[in-house]
């Protein structure tokens, strides 16, 4: 990753939100594709050394993404994302939750509303992700689970993928 690329990870405990602003050395359409196409998501959407596999995905309003992050020992950590308010290459909103391999939501872990916005920054693109939790406890739970470190590592994998796709 180029060290001069913007990365902000902001915690707002009054509003139970995380705001992640990340710049990428690629044009907006390519970054959008990496966030919204299964074959690309599976190549980057998990912190190192985890890998990702998609069970099912339908990126559209009222669509979903059911996926697992897999650790090196083969343990699967499942997630379920419900898409809504999709506005191609500008933004989309989701409800994101932990689940099992069948897609049953884990009520013991936090669910969050995400808004992911894509903008141009010169020849680069920025992605602003605002994650809103129901409570301060939920926000603190994901922070303690390593959300910041996980996001840094995951987005570095996206940097690496973007370099290969631009060639």
Automatic annotation (TrEMBL):
Residue span(s) of domain Activator of Hsp90 ATPase homologue 1/2-like C-terminal: 26-163
Parts of the chain that traverse the membrane: none
SUPFAM superfamilies documented for this protein: Bet v1-like
Family of the protein in this entry: Belongs to the AHA1 family.
Protein name as catalogued: SRPBCC domain-containing protein
Native species: Mariniflexile gromovii
């Amino acid at each position: 990753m180029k060290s001069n690329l913007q990365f902000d990870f902001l915690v707002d405990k009054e509003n139970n939100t995380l705001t992640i602003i990340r710049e990428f050395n690629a044009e907006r359409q390519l970054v959008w594709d990496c966030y919204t196409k299964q074959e690309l998501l599976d190549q980057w959407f998990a912190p190192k050394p985890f890998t990702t596999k998609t069970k099912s995905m339908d990126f559209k309003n009222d669509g979903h993404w059911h996926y697992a992050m897999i650790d090196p020992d083969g343990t699967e950590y499942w997630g379920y994302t419900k898409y809504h308010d999709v506005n191609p290459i500008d933004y989309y909103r989701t409800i994101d939750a932990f689940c099992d391999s069948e897609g049953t939501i884990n009520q013991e872990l936090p669910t969050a509303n995400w808004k992911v916005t894509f903008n141009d920054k010169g020849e680069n693109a920025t992605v602003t992700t605002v994650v809103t939790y129901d409570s301060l406890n939920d926000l603190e739970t994901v922070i303690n689970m390593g959300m910041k470190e996980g996001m840094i590592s995951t987005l570095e994998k996206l940097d690496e993928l973007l370099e290969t796709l631009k060639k």
